[in-house]
Amino acid sequence: MNSERTEAVPDFEHDESFRDSIGTVDKAGKRVWITPKKTKGKFYNARTWFSLLLLALLFSGPFIRIGGQPLLLLNFFERKFVIFGAPFWPQDFHLFALLLLCFVIFIVTFTAVFGRVWCGWACPQTVFMEMVFRRIEYWIEGDSNKQRKLNAVPMSFSKLFKKTIKHLIFFLIAFVIGNTFMAYIIGSEPWWEIVTQPPTEHFVGFMAVLIFSGIFYFIFAWFREQACVIVCPYGRFQSVLLDKSSIVISYDFKRGEPRGKKSRSYTGAKLGDCIDCHQCVDVCPTGIDIRNGTQLECVNCTSCIDACDSVMTKIKRPKGLIRFASYNAIKTGDHRKFTPRIFGYSTVLVVLLIIFMAVLLSRKDIETTVLRSPGTLFQELAGDGYSNIYQFKIINKTLNDIPISFKLKNKKANIRLNQQNFIVPKNNLYSSMMVIDIQKSQLNPGRNQIILQVWHGNKLLEEVNTTFQAAAEFK
Ligand code: SF4
Ligand code: SF4
Questions:
Q1: Contact, 89 vs 395, CB < 8 A?
Q2: Which pLDDT score is estimated for 151?
Q3: pLDDT in tens, 113-149
Q4: Domains present along the chain, CATH in parentheses
Q5: Of 82, 103, 174, 178, whose CA–CA distance to 133 is shortest?
Q6: Residue burial 12-39, b: 16+ Cβ < 10 Å; e: rest
Q7: Which residues line ligand 1 (CB under 6 A)?
Q8: Ligand 2 atom having least distance to the Cα of 287
Q9: Residue among 286, 291, 305 whose CB has most ligand 2 atoms within 8 A, to mutate
Q10: Residue with the nearest Cα to atom 6 of ligand 1?
């Protein structure tokens, strides 16, 4: 590319008028229905395989078991979360919050370096929309031109048939997604009960599945790219996360401008490599022209790269007129990725990860809660002592069943349990009642502080402080 041509296009970089509107809304404020052209190319193939992997993971997630736990469970109702088979109990909420924070900072850092790659490649919205629903639409209604023609013609038997079949399939898939979503929230076993038992027995669960299915159907059949452009908070944040060193889908304006039809070059006009064929715009699922520069609507799906590469191949020019590159790399050839901002984000991320690991490693294997039974004070024993009733809960956070026994520290006591040596199942919770009898000679009048020891065989696992109530006066 010669530099004369580059200097001849200063307006291109400064004309930001395209940001005054979005590609999916016309001047009258009405929705512009996007019917992107089918994409072909190496990025699309890679995305297809990657999406298949993600879809397999997504649909099997609630059913895969690691140490008896699901791969992922997000039970907000019972505040039980399982991530990669590791359960997080309500007592671990600080850990869960830390993990979420690390994830958010990771996404922020990743976005600042590589732009919105998550959106185009891994976000369930894009994966389902582009790799499932859009493909079904192509299969039933044809490519974008045929879809537009079908939408424009009056209703006929053929049009009604195609639209009905398409929406039926859309709803069926939305129903499958709704069920999977439900299994992620409540767990696969309770979900299976909802599915296999009459709706009257699980009316709330049954309605929830139908509502989730309806929402997914609405999103993929009608709302579509609006979810990314208007609703998604991550998309909104993009403008503050990206800078000129971020690697995003970029049009090489130095090489491409001034753009023009190939035929114009015969008139002697000095033209760039962009032949203004509009292919990159036609395939865009959010309806933007990436040649205007990075835009909020771009989900980094790479369809425009594939489209432009195939045009460049046809006209025998090098591929990569649209490619992954930062603005600085195109403008000045500066490929630096590790800017002070990225250094700052990375430092915060590393510090948070260290804190998370420290908290995780110091997490106890079991966690015991002991509370005096509400409404009871004490009972005087026939002999010479008092008894108190307690409720206790033990959470076993390990992958092994743990037999447990109790002792009292520094006091002789008789501890009565339903089962003297009980087992707390792995990754589970055991709750029961116990009665503690203590001789008067071991007690002070009124409230006494006692320490309950939790033993596994000869190993002391934990000590829990609680109180023991005796009469206000006794001899
Ligand atoms: S596909 Fe490539 S050549 Fe065609 S308009 Fe887009 S950037 Fe220009
Ligand atoms: S501009 Fe390109 S990468 Fe961005 S959404 Fe459109 S087609 Fe996808």
A1: yes
A2: 95
A3: 888 888 999 999 999 999 999 999 999 999 999 999 9
A4: 1-363 (no CATH), 366-469 (2.60.40.10)
A5: 174
A6: beeeeeeeeebbbeeeeeeeeebbbbeb
A7: 251, 256, 259, 274-280, 291, 307-308, 311, 321-322
A8: 6
A9: 286
A10: 280
